[in-house]
Design goal:
Distance between the termini: 34 Å
Strand content: 5-15%
Order of helices and strands: EHEHEHEHEHHEHEHEHHHHH
Shape: globular
CATH superfamily: Aldolase class I
Number of helices: 13
CATH class: Alpha Beta
CATH topology: TIM Barrel
Oligomer: single chain
Strand order of the largest sheet: 1-2-3-4-5-6-7-8
Low-confidence stretches: none
CATH architecture: Alpha-Beta Barrel
Structural class: alpha/beta
């Protein structure tokens, strides 16, 4: 249903951390002009933990309005509270989003049965296409392949963003689910290989700053063109690594500000990228041809 380079879009902010809709419009047009295949609004990279519900829904609605149907908009609507996840997913559907991205419930450490029932409850309550999101390094909660296989049988659960970076795990999900579920990378460094294995795309941090290159690399990898995909991915390797010098989205927001696309605004407890990392990230940006 969705494929290719899907940007995990940052949420631009002014210096006082208020939302910057003018910069959001610049980012949307930047991605449309450079071939981004879908826009993910208010995921982890969009600072979902520090947007209250009103801001969260407002950013999704504004993104949908700015995109005007030119590419799909996937709304981050996950929560560690099932009721809140249902409410956010319903609001995203009413705002016109094409799908939702639902992170595993963080902090409260549900069992695999709890995870299955959590996602089933959201899918039963809201008809919107839904993408599971497994990122145990952040959530301390791991959605195992056996549970993914069970969830793949639910008709409006259409994909999973697997952000462990574990390609063996990816193969297990591919073997278990087949065509019942699309698998997307959530780790830019391993996304090329995931797509060459049969994945359908990546929900990407790197594509915030290098959308055209990521679009072209994803298209080659999905088509099985290994040599071309490797050649396109090589200049991006530094970004895949250095955009995580500090917690995402600290480095990528700084890089976008250096490119003149947004300001430096970010919400506490996150802070602007430390001075000691500036030159290292600039070097990765030069390697990718961004500056």
């Amino acid at each position: 249903m969705f494929h290719g380079s899907m940007v995990a879009l940052v949420t631009p902010m002014h210096d006082d951390s208020s939302l910057d809709y003018e910069a959001l419009e610049r980012l949307v047009e930047f991605h449309i002009d450079n071939g981004t295949d879908a826009i993910v609004s208010v995921g982890t990279t969009g600072e979902s933990p520090t947007l209250n519900d009103a801001d969260h829904i407002a950013v999704i609605r504004k993104t949908v309005d700015l995109v005007r149907g030119r590419v799909p908009v996937i709304a981050g609507t996950g929560s560690n509270c099932t009721r809140e996840a249902i409410d956010l997913t319903m609001a995203a559907m009413e705002a016109g989003a094409d799908a939702s991205l639902l992170v595993t419930p963080y902090y409260n450490k549900p069992t695999q049965e709890g995870l299955y029932l959590h996602y089933k409850a959201i899918a039963d309550a809201v008809a919107l296409p839904q993408i599971l999101y497994n990122v145990p390094g952040r959530t301390v909660c791991d959605l195992l392949p056996q549970t993914v296989e069970r969830l793949a049988k639910i008709s409006n659960i259409v994909g999973i963003k697997e952000a462990t970076g574990d390609l063996q795990r990816v193969q297990e999900i591919l073997d278990a689910c087949g065509d019942a579920l699309d698998i997307y990378g959530g780790d830019d460094a391993t996304a090329r290989e995931l797509m060459l294995m049969g994945g359908r795309g990546v929900i990407s941090v790197t594509s915030n700053v290098a959308p055209k290159a990521m679009h072209e690399m994803c298209a080659a990898a999905i088509a099985g063109e290994r040599e071309k995909a490797e050649a396109l991915d090589a200049p991006l390797a530094g970004l895949h690594d250095k955009l995580f010098l500090e917690a995402n989205p600290i480095p990528v927001k700084w890089a976008l500000a250096e490119m003149g696309l947004i300001g430096y605004g970010i919400r506490l407890p996150l802070t602007v990228l430390s001075q000691q990392h500036h030159q290292t990230l600039r070097q990765a940006m030069r390697q990718a041809g961004l500056i």
